[in-house]
Design goal:
The complex is a heterodimer of chains A (about 400) and B (about 190). Chain A has about 400 residues and is mainly beta. Helix content of chain A is about 10%, strand content about 40%. The two termini of chain A are about 40 Å apart. About 10% of the residues of chain A have low confidence. Chain B is mainly α. The chains are: A mainly beta (about 400), B mainly alpha (about 190). At the A-B interface, helix 1, helix 2, strand 24 and strand 28 of A face helix 1, helix 2, strand 1, helix 6 and helix 7 of B.
Chain lengths: ~400, ~190
């Protein structure tokens, strides 16, 4: 007998935690055991090498106090030499993207024991139910991209801060990063590929190339006046480029710079509130959502306000914003009524009534959520090593990608 | 396959999920818990001929995993911890954690490790006070004290926790449920 108010709750918690676990094949244990033994052998060998080297150069003080712990020499070559990188190390997902409701891809980092990471991509052709082989975009030592976009056929684009192109489903990659630019966003809508780049002196520009000649590299440069490193790019269904600038030095309002498809000038839409950061989403040419992170209050709180416009920013309606923690918030709108909102330390919220009320789509998790992607009513979002998917009319399904 | 290896495989199949659930409640992270339990099994594989004679090899595995969790080495390198998984993907329906579980997990993580271990072993692993005493190597009186203090602290934390969400589609919060649940016996 265990009379305790928490007894049942704790037992339920234990059962819930266990129920979400699938035991991997036992071979995992055998491989881990083999890896430990090999690492121990290499570590011991490195220890000998370090001791011999220290003796030769007369610098034993460099390792004094560490005797008996030869691995303190940081065996940098251990892991990559003992096990294939493709199956060892934790995968942390950064982004998911889609081409159709069946073809999508995830991008993440797989890090080894020493904390060095490859950037990898996995592609699915069955709506994200199974993923094919993992391919490496960039190896350790390179600041890898954090976002992924899919083009027609076998085209994949990885970006932010660099720009990488694959035209064989992710097997091989070429670098397209323009010299002196960091790529913040891309759009593959229409016949023109557009990237938003920020130069080393903080100036933003649209960099374009015909999709058919993407491998030839970005060629057309269109300056974005007044945009800085905070700028983000979207293209609406009409092909208009929408550049959001949120972090305004010293306060002020966020703004949205609009350039019509084929146009040669920019128009400016000023946000209805002062923001230190802003997140913007335009699911249709007429439906705009803006979430504004306001300057810190005396208590340190950074309030978020959400606005909806149905006339391309001519007027804004203030709607309810859920309690997103931290100094950032990301809105991903599906239409004028439906949108997701998340922050680095918050649940994933959803509204289906234009922001009148919000509910928790997924509770807060330590890893936080990436930016949701929605197509044909199906939603994907990444969190840690988990890819969440929600099909129309059903609940969320999680998939752990090793 | 040798009989020894077969015995450990059977134990792995039978106890992996259970151990991960217990460790996840202790460390507050299922992925980390899987890493700890896999490491414990890897160590057991090297000495199974001895371990299989123990009354409860599962208790040995749990102790090893808990010791690993306590280790400063592991905590300091948590972000870089390796996790070998042959599965490239595993599609399964997983209910999202409820608001109750989020509140309770958050409260557990704020408890001192010794109290958290005692609560998890008693309520989730369903061990008796004597078994916990034996597993942790501390007197039964100490276990009782840790359980008592742990429950008090947990009660304060849960009762003080505001409702994590007030969505239209989510049920009562853990705090709400527990206030009305009161004493539970089994």
């Amino acid at each position: 007998m265990k009379p305790d108010r928490f007894d049942r709750a704790l037992r339920d918690l234990g059962e819930h935690l266990s129920s979400n676990v699938q035991a991997p094949p036992y071979e995992v244990i055998e491989r881990r055991r083999t890896g430990r033994r090999r690492r121990r052998e290499v570590g011991a060998l490195l220890g000998v090498v370090v001791l011999v080297t220290a003796a030769v150069v007369g610098t034993t003080s460099a390792i004094s106090g560490r005797s008996g712990a030869p691995v303190s020499a940081r065996p940098q070559v251990t892991v990559t030499e003992t096990v294939p990188a493709a199956v060892e190390g934790r995968l942390t997902l950064r982004d998911v993207s889609y081409l159709t409701d069946q073809v999508n891809a995830v991008l993440g980092q797989r890090c080894d024991l020493t904390g060095r990471c490859d950037t990898v991509v996995l592609r699915s052709d069955d709506g994200g139910r199974t993923f094919g082989h993992e391919h490496v975009v960039t190896r350790v030592g390179v600041v890898g991209p954090t976002k992924i976009a899919l083009g027609a056929g076998q085209t994949l684009v990885a970006y932010d801060p660099g720009l990488y192109l694959s035209q064989d489903g992710g097997v091989s990659w070429q670098v397209l990063t323009p010299p002196g630019y960091a790529i913040k966003d891309v759009s593959t809508r229409g016949k023109t590929f557009t990237a938003l780049g920020v130069s080393i002196d903080g100036q933003a520009a649209l960099l374009q190339v015909p999709v058919a000649d993407l491998a030839g590299g970005l060629r057309t440069y269109i300056p974005v006046p007044g945009a800085d490193a905070s700028a983000r790019l979207q293209q609406d269904a009409d092909g208009a480029a929408l550049v959001t600038v949120g972090a305004v030095a010293g306060g002020g309002s966020a703004k949205i710079l609009v350039r019509a498809s084929g146009g040669s000038t920019w128009s400016t839409v000023v946000a209805p509130a002062a923001c230190t950061a802003a997140s913007f989403s335009a699911p249709t040419p007429a439906s705009w959502w803006l979430v504004c992170v306001q300057p810190p209050a005396p208590g340190g709180d950074r309030a978020k306000t959400a606005y909806v416009s149905v006339d391309r920013g001519a007027s804004w309606e203030l709607v309810t914003a859920p309690p997103v923690d931290g100094g950032a918030a990301v809105v991903t709108a599906v239409g004028s009524r439906e949108a997701y909102l998340s922050g680095p330390n918050s649940p994933l919220y959803v509204t289906t009534d234009g922001g009148t009320s919000w509910s928790v789509a997924l509770p807060r998790v330590p890893a936080g959520f990436g930016e949701p992607h929605v197509l044909s009513g199906r939603t994907w979002v990444v969190s840690g090593s988990t890819l969440w998917r929600m099909d129309p009319g059903s609940g969320w399904v999680s998939m752990t990608l090793g | 396959m040798s009989g020894e290896a077969e015995g450990l495989r059977e134990l792995y199949s039978a106890s992996y999920r259970r151990l991960v659930g217990q460790l996840a409640a202790m460390v507050g992270d299922v992925v980390e818990a899987e890493d700890l339990v896999q490491e414990a099994f890897a160590r057991a594989a090297g000495q199974w001929s001895r371990l299989q004679r123990y009354d409860s090899p599962e208790a040995w595995l749990r102790t090893v995993a808990m010791n690993l969790a306590r280790s400063r080495w592991r905590r300091s390198r948590r972000a870089a911890a390796a996790l070998i998984r042959l599965r490239s993907s595993s599609d399964h329906t997983a209910p999202a954690p409820s608001a109750d579980h989020v509140v309770l997990t958050a409260a557990l993580r704020q408890l001192p490790a010794a109290q958290r271990e005692a609560l998890v072993l008693f309520h989730i692993a369903d061990l008796s006070i004597e078994e916990i005493s034996s597993e942790l190597g501390v007197p039964t009186g100490t276990i009782k004290a840790r359980l008592s203090r742990g429950r008090q602290a947990l009660s304060r934390l849960v009762d003080d926790t505001p409702a994590p969400v007030a969505p239209k589609s989510v049920g009562p919060t853990a705090a709400g449920k527990m206030r009305s649940g009161d004493e539970v016996s089994r």
